[in-house]
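Predict structure. Input: ORC1-type DNA replication protein, 594 residues.
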Amino acid sequence: MSDDNSEITGSDEVDGTSGFSTDFESADLGDDESNQGLFDDLLSGEPIFENKEVLRPSYTPHELPHRSDQINKMATILVAALRGETPSNILIYGKTGTGKTASAKFVSKELESTSQKYSVPCDVEYINCEVTDTQYRVLAQLANKFIEKNEARIDDRVATLESLLDDVDEYDADAARRSADATAPGEDPDDRTASDPFDFVSSADAEPDVDGSGGDETGAQSGGSAVETEGSQEGATDAADSSSAASETGLEDIGGPGHDEAPTDSSALPPDHPLESTAFETRAEVEDRIAELEDDKESFEEVPMTGWPTDRVYSVFFDAVDYDERVVVIMLDEIDKLVEKSGDDTLYNLSRMNSELENSRVSIIGISNDLKFTDFLDPRVKSSLGEEEIVFPPYDANQLRDILKHRSEVAFKGNALSEDVIPLCAAFAAQEHGDARRALDLLRTAGELAERSQAETIVEEHVRQAQDKIELDRVVEVVRTLPTQSKLVLFAIILLEKNGVHSINTGEVFNIYKRLCEEIDADVLTQRRVTDLISELDMLGIVNAVVVSKGRYGRTKEISLSVPLEETEAVLLSDSRLSNIDDVQPFVQARFEN
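Output follows.
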């Protein structure tokens, strides 16, 4: 993609969100009505969205309203990385939708761009532990990412060194031509060796070494390996003003064998020689360094996602991180899910790495919705991991309104929103514990509903429809992920309601549940356990279970469905085990007959 911002249109790339350009107006559909396909009518309306992606949780904006305090605190901790020091580990807490991940990603993006600006090696890696939830997967993913980075850096360095060799060849050819032009009449040019830069040293220097070894015998022995200036970055940077080869190709980051040794005297090289301001004395040293880098690249072995012992994966990850001098920030989102699934071994290994690393330094940022997850950590892990803690409070309605207004200016075309849309979205989300993600979902869904109905403006009714749709989507997802036994209990409640039974009690649910278990050959739980499952469904908001007193007959639970019946039944029947139930009516009839 071109570096010229003028070439980036609204749909090409906006703040890291890529897309593709579309031009429906200029499309030639012809006069034939048969050309009108399924999507043509849908595309004929005027679009409401300018860039829908800014309303998605994955989008990281340039500005995060009402989170400047937390962002500034993160920045003051991580600025140590730009000084080449190890930043303190950070734990970030807060409920869902309070801007934790967005703020952390924003700060990490700024950290990486600033590190490139000042040529400070700093890498940030993000892992979602809800997806990558075992020690093996976390270490394997990190190892492969750093192997990929190392290979890319080696390729860059090899390309730089090969370009330097080209410059040396060009210089030698130039020197040969000058030597031929300067040869006295009658003198045979073949009697001189013009391909070696040392042939053109002033008479005060040692006599040229015609075998191309790069100096007298003593110098050749002492400089047999690639010797670099002390502090490879500083040495090459100071020389950058006098050599375009070093400044343009970044030779200060090449490294090489013997880089800690004292530099040899390179005064024998002419001032305009390509190697004069580099860490290398001869062409052979450059070639040796290229071979060494290529050997390093060959030695890297990608970690498979399964099959290796965990200690081997850790060893590969450790070596990959420590290959270069750099500060590494590892961001673990939903860190409590990793601890819940795999214990604290991963955090223990990561938090103790710095005591063994020679070149790199590692810092950890943990993000969690659970304020108490550290209570279950080993005290040693807890002390090293929670060096700094940052809490993200929920947003209130006014703050959510500011966030939505800020995003809507980029997301929608002009005048696409009526005045009451943003306040209503903010009010609905504020009731859900100040969840900005919920507010953004509401606004985006309202826009989609308006666009589908080919409305020109999003109004309050679209927001209310979006609220119902999101709630239904949540129910569908919760029901779909229920265990089979809970699905059977819920199916029993649905069957009773479909057959006109009101104020359902636990015994009635248990009778139908037993017959459903027999139908699909599932284990039958005790009535007490079924009562517990009903309580769990009540907690999820799928059913409403109220304990009522029957006087002398004791107390019982009266159960009713809290979700749409038909949609919930359809989700249950989509389960392969429950779909085998052919005719459920006899179960209810049999229950009443008994």
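The radius of gyration is 35 Å.
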